[in-house]
Amino acid sequence: MSGIDWYLPIIWAAILATAVIMYVILDGFDLGLGILFTTTREESYRDDMMSSIAPFWDGNETWLVLGGGGLLAAFPLAYSIIMPALYIPVILMLLALILRGVAFEFRWAAKPHHRAWDWAFAGGSIVAAFAQGLVLGGLIQGITVEDRAFAGGNFDWLSPFSIMCGLGLVAGYGLLASCWLMLKTAGPVSAHARRLAPYFLIAVAGFAALVSLWTPLRFPHIWERWFSTPNIFFLWPLPLATAGLVLFVWRAIGRGADIGPFLGVIGIFLLCFAGLAISAYPYLIPASLDIWQAAAATSSLKFMLAGVALLLPMILGYTFFVYWTFRGKLREGEGYHF
Amino acid sequence: MAFDHVLVSRLQFAFTITFHIIFPAFTIGLSAFIATLLARWVFTKNDQYRDLARFWTKIFAISFAMGVVSGVVLSYQFGTNWSRFSSTAGNVVGPLLAYEVLTAFFLEATFLGVMLFGHNRVPRWLHLTSSIMVALGTAASAFWILAANSWMQVPVGYELRDGVAFPVDWLKVIFSPTFPLRFAHMVIAAYLTTALVVLAVGARFALAGRFPEHARTMLHMGLGLALVLVPVQIFIGDQHGLVTAHYQPVKLAAIEGHWDSNEVAPLVLFGLPNEKTQTNDYQLAIPNLGSVIITHEWTGKYPGLDQYAPADWPPVTPIFFAFRLMVGIGFALLAFVLWGGWLWYKSELAMNRLFLRVAANVWPFGFLAIISGWMVTEIGRQPWVVTGVLRTADAASPISLQTVLVSLALFILVYGVIFSTGIYYMNRLINAGPTPPVVKDETGLPSRPLSGAAEAAHHAAHEPERSATAS
C-alpha cells in the first residue's frame, strides 16, 4: 500500500471519530435533558431545560448527519454492512429523534395542552439514547460478514452487553445534561440538577468500569490490545485518568462549581471514547473489516478532504459564534421566538 | 412485482421522501421570504415588515423542525434499506451528500438558532445576516441533493471496477447533463410554492377584513413573485423535457405515452396507458403536437417504448398521470396569476372577492406539483436506481420482509401524527395573524406564549434591550 492510500483512511477515521464525539457530547446533553424531564413535574423546570438548548439542538443534531453521511462517503462498505445489521436500533433511534425533535416546536405551540409533547420529548430522548447505546454495543460485539455484505439475523445486535451499553449511554447523557443545567441555569433548576448529578455520576462510573472489564474478558483481541506488553505500559494511565476525573467531577458538583462538572464530564466522555477507539483500532467492524478495506476510492477521500479542510474550521467558527451569542445563564423569558 | 423486502423498502423510501420534500420545498422559499422581509424592515424601518417576519418565522420554525427530523431519516435509509446501492455508488454519491452536510446543513441549522432566538442578543444587521445564512443553506442543500439525484438519473464522469462505481471527473459528476435544469426547476418550484402560500394567507386575511395592511403586502409579494416565476418555470420545464428526451428517452416515451417509434407523435392530453396492447385506451390527443414539442419538426419522430425491452420500461401509468397533473397545475397557475396580475394592474386586487376566494385555496397546488414532478422523475428512472449501473431490485439490503413491514408501519404512524399536528399548529399560528409586539408593563413570564397578552409581556421585557443593541 502506497503512502497516501494508507494515510487517507486514517485521516478519515479521525474525522469521523471527531464527528461522532462532537455528536455524543453536543446532542448528549440535549437528549439528556429529555431524560431529566422525567425527574420533575414542574412545568417551569421543563421550560427552562428546553429553553437552555432551543437555539443549539438543531446544529448539535447535524453532527449525527455528518457521522452517517461521512460513514457512507468515506467508508461505504462499512456503512453498507453496519446499517442493515443494526436496522432495528437505527430505525428506533430515528423514530425517537423525530418525536423529540418536533417536540421542541410543538410543545410551545400546544401550550397549555402540551403534556403529550412532554412525553414525546422525554420518551423520544430516552429511546434515542438507549438505541444509540444498542448501536454501540452491537458494533463492539461484532457483525456477521460474508462476501463483503451483512449475513446475520435481524436480532444479532440484541444481547446483555448491548443492553448494558444502552443503559450506560442513558446514564451518561443524563449526567451531561445535569452538568449542562448547572452551567446554563440558575436558581431551583440548577439546584435540582446538582442534586441529581451525583446519582448519574455513580451510574456512569459503574457502567464504565463494567465495560472496561467485560470487553477484554469477552473479546480476546481487546484483552490482547490492553494487557499485552508493551501496550499495558502505555495504556494504564487511561483508566487511572478516568477515575481521577470522576473524583474531580464529584467534588466540583459538591463545591457548587458551575463549569467544572461540565468540563470534567466532557473529559470522561473523551477518555471513554479513546478507550473504545484503542480497543477497536484498526477495525470499523471488529475482526471483519478494517479501515483500509472499508475505505472509499482515493479520489473520493481526497475530494472530500479538501472540503473538510476548508469548511470544518468555518463550521466550528460559526458554531462557536452561536454558543457565544447565547453565553451565560439562561435569561428570564429566553427561548421565545423572534 | 413480488411482495418482498425490496418492494416494501421502495414503499418506505417513497413514503418517507414524499413526506420530507414537502418541508424543504416550503422552507427553501420561506427562509428567503423572511430574509427579504427583514431586509425591508432594516432598510425602510417600516415595522409592518418586522411583524410579518415574526409571523412567518413562527410558522417557519415548525416546518423547519419537521424537515430536519424527516431528513435525518433519509441519510440513514441509504444504508439500512439500500446497502447495495451504498456499496456500489457510495464512492460517488457519498461525497456529494457529505458536501451537503458541510456546506448547507450546518449553515442552516446553526444560524437557525440566532434567527429564531437571537433577536434581542445581536444587532439587527446580524440577525438579518443569520436569516440570510439560513436561506443560503437551504438552497445549497438543494444544490447537492439535486447533483446526487441527477447523477443517479444520468451517470457520467465515473468508471465501473468490479461492479463498483469510481469517480473519474468530479466536475462531470456534479454538473451531470440533467443537473442544471433540474436544480433550477426545483429551486424555482420551492420559491413558487412559498409564494402561493404567502398569497393564500394574504387572501385569507383580506377576505376576513383582518390586518388589511399586512394582507396587501402579502398579496403583492406573493403574486408579484408568482407572476415572474410561473412563466419562467413553464419555460424551464419545457427545456428540461428536451434534455430528458436526449438523455432518458425511455422515461420521455413513458411520460408522453408514446409507444410506436414509427408514429408521428400526437400530444396525448388524456388516455389510459395499456402496457399489454401498447396503446393508450380512450386517447384524447392533438395530432403532430407531440413531435413538434420534442423534435421541433412537424412530422419529426422520436423513439417510442417499442424501442426498448419491457423489462427496461418504467411503470408507464403512474408517470403518465403524474406528469399531466404537474403540467396541468402549471398552466392553471399561469391563468390564475395572469388574472391576478390584471386585477392588480386595475388596482382591484384586494377587492375582487372571487379572486381572493380562489387565491385563499391555491396554497396546496405548489406542493402537489412538486410531489407529482418528483414522482415522474423517480418512477421514471425505474427499473434502475442508478441508470444503467444498478437495478433497484439489486440495490436493497439483506434484511427480512417482516422487519421492513414493521418499520414502514411505524413511519406511517409517527409521520401521520406529526404531520396532522404540525399542520394544525401552523394553521392556528396563521389564524392568530401578524400581531405587532405591544409595549406594556412587565408581568410574569410563565412560558413562551402564543396568546396576545403573554406575548405583550414578553416584548415589554425585551424591548429596552433590543433598542439598546440596535442603536
Secondary structure category of chain A: mainly alpha
Round the mean pLDDT of chain A to the nearest integer and report it: 92
Question: Roughly how much helix do the residues of chain B carry, as a percent range?
Answer: over 70%
The radius of gyration computed from the alpha-carbon positions of chain A, rounded to a whole number of angstroms, is 20 Å
Biggest sheet, spatial arrangement of strands of chain B: 1-2
Task: Report the total helices of chain A.
Answer: 14
| H and E order of chain B | HHHHEEHHHHEEHHHHEEHH
User: What is the strand tally of chain A?
Assistant: 4
Mean pLDDT of chain B: 89
Largest sheet of chain A: 2 strands, antiparallel
Description:
The complex is a heterodimer of chains A (338) and B (471). Chain A has 338 residues and is an all-alpha fold. Chain A has one domain (3-325). Chain A has 14 helices and four strands. In chain A, the strands form two sheets. Chain A has a two-stranded antiparallel sheet. A two-stranded antiparallel sheet of chain A has the order 3-4. In chain A, helix 11 (237-255) packs antiparallel against helix 12 (260-280). Chain A starts with a helix and ends in a 13-residue tail after the last helix. With 471 residues, chain B is mainly alpha-helical. Chain B has one domain. Chain B is built from 14 helices and six strands. In chain B, the strands form three sheets. Chain B has a two-stranded antiparallel sheet. In chain B, strands 3-4 form a two-stranded antiparallel ribbon. In chain B, strands 5-6 form a two-stranded antiparallel sheet. In chain B, helix 1 (5-44) packs antiparallel against helix 4 (124-153). The longest helix of chain B is centred in the N-terminal third of the chain and has 40 residues, at 5-44. Residues 439-471 of chain B have low confidence and may be disordered. Chains A and B meet through helix 2, helix 3, helix 4, helix 5 and strand 2 of A and helix 2, helix 3, helix 13 and helix 14 of B.
